[in-house]
Amino acid sequence: MAATYHVRSSSLPARLHSNGLNHIQQLLTRLPTDNTNNSLSLLSRLYESISHLCNNSPASSLLPHHSFFTDLLDLSLVHLDLCSKLRDITSRIKDCLRDLRSAFRRRRHGGDFTIRCHVKAFVRSRRLIHKDLAKLLYLLKQTDHSSIFSTHPLITLLQQVCSQTCISFRTVMLSLSASVPKPKPSGWALVSKLVINNVTSKSAQVQTGQENEFQMMDEELQRFCSAKEIKKEGIKSLINSLDKVDVAVEELEESLESLYRRMIQARVSLLNILSLHI
């Protein structure tokens, strides 16, 4: 068994590849903070690059920094859990969208009262999702790893990647929980009260300079809920908004799925290196 470990260890290079480190650093500088899908796509490439770098890193150089890597590995578990929960939330949003769009297609059979009930249920589901997102935002805030300090180049890069992961997850959560101002009191006050409140303060809102699909959908929902009667124009506008959100959620779900796989691969690669000296 000892001979087997010796063969695996001797195949590792004597030092970290500078090209791999530079490539990761370049990806870090390219990561946007206001575009969810682009951010997650580049983040996936970051974790993929980390896997390659770890697979070509000398285990002997990492051994003295074992405690730092252990802390970062613990943090990676939290990030994996957050990514998994975000995937679950996008799946829930897709299911709710499918039910509401199906209700609109069956409108001529159920009438306006049925449509109002389905919209009311959808708005309630949005509120529940916002509560779950608020909990995830709080959990994300607790993943502060500023106490980890090391001069090791790989550890320094991993710290930066962890920080960027937090930023990207926060952007996703805030975009999903984007809220609009409270509507004026109207005849349908019961449903209006169900429209989602802000899950964070104004300082925590996404500063993109433009509304995202979820904000526009929530505005359409408020207009629909505030209307005294259901008109074809209102239905058409809301359905159009729901269609755009459906596309955005589909893309987001795919991006999160890809990122989740890359994060697992990076974690396994790092664990493989550290296990050589256990």
Written overview of the protein:
- This protein has 278 residues and is mainly alpha-helical.
- It has one domain (64-201, 215-275).
- The protein contains ten helices and no strands.
- Helix 5 runs antiparallel to helix 10 and helix 6 packs antiparallel against helix 7.
Task: Outline the secondary-structure elements.
Layout: H1 2-10, H2 18-30, H3 36-55, H4 59-62, H5 66-105, H6 107-141, H7 153-176, H8 189-192, H9 213-226, H10 232-275
Beta-strand proportion: under 5%
Q: What's the end-to-end separation, in Å?
A: 13 Å
Q: Roughly how many Å is the radius of gyration?
A: 23 Å
Gross morphology is: elongated
Give the helix proportion (percent range).
over 70%
Poorly predicted segments? 1-14, 180-210
Query: How many structurally independent domains?
Result: 1
Helix-strand makeup class = mainly alpha
Give a concise summary.
The protein is an all-alpha fold. Helix content is 74%, strand content 0%.
Task: Provide the descriptors you would attach to this structure in a database record.
single chain, 278 residues, mainly alpha, 74% helix, elongated, disordered N terminus
